[in-house]
Amino acid sequence: MFLEQSINSENKFFKYIWGSVLIIFASFVGQILFVAVLLYDSSTTDKNYPTTNDALMRYFDSNLTLFLILFSFVITMVGVYLVVRSVHNQTILSVTTARKKVDWNRIFFSFSIWTNFTIATTLITYYYNPTEFIWNFKPIPFAVLAAIAIILIPIQTSCEEYIFRGYLMQGFANLARNKWFPLLMTSLIFGGMHYFNPEVAKIGPLIMVYYIGTGLFLGIITLMDDGMELALGFHAANNLVGALLLTSDWSAFQTHSIFKDISEPSASFDIILPVLIIYPFLLFIFSNKYKWTNWKEKLTGKVEELNPTIINK
């Protein structure tokens, strides 16, 4: 039902190409504020304009940098909404779920599961390897971080989910008229978008297994559950709790978090542990709670038009 909601005689794949261009344009518009603030500061102070990504991330205080980065997703999310409504004549609900309304209980359940797991594993790691962490907590910077993160990170993660598990997944379903191709393509693109993260340069290409595997996991729970609610909750918990709890000099987000990881990262089994063990265990939990069945059909079956008009129009 979720993918079928986009199948319509007027909703051709070329519209998704055009819509993707508009969403990318909205993303660039969202970055104008960051560029403007950089230009103003570098021209009114003795600081040089950053020419590398590392210099860019360290130019301002991490809280301001985080705000400026996350703000661009607000504009991008507006772009996604306008594209869905204007280009495809769909409601945002039809790109979110096959249910009659968004199931917030699913979002909160997924969020709580991954939040508790992240906190528990971080504390256990800290207990057994205390020399790899330093106490980084500073009340005022952390309070500012919390305010920024709680408001903007859910927008950032929701924006990514609407693009990959919603918009593009339905778009590739229009092209291929099956389910396995959208699942595979969105996972590869999602992973590829993380290729330029500083973690890749520091750890090596093995971490791409984690990024692509995470995209695959989020795609599977979206297709099996006929909606993005579980993916929305998981992604928000992953980025929000991660930003508040732990940072490092080589991570994508530099934050005034509670802990700072000072260990030297390396490509090891820990990188692919979530893909091989943790994600399958989460699939087991979700499948039992929500009574998922007919896995083969939901993940690889055909996608056909349900009726002459777009659902939830």
TrEMBL record:
Record's keyword terms, sorted: Membrane, Transmembrane, Transmembrane helix
Biological process annotations from GO: CAAX-box protein maturation
InterPro entries: Rce1/LyrA-like_dom (IPR003675)
Residue ranges occupied by any CAAX prenyl protease 2/Lysostaphin resistance protein A-like domain in the UniProt entry: 144-241
Sequence intervals crossing the membrane: 16-40, 64-84, 107-128, 140-159, 180-197, 203-223, 230-247, 267-286
Name of this chain's protein: CAAX prenyl protease 2/Lysostaphin resistance protein A-like domain-containing protein
Keyword Lipoprotein set for record: no
A Gene Ontology molecular function term of the record: endopeptidase activity
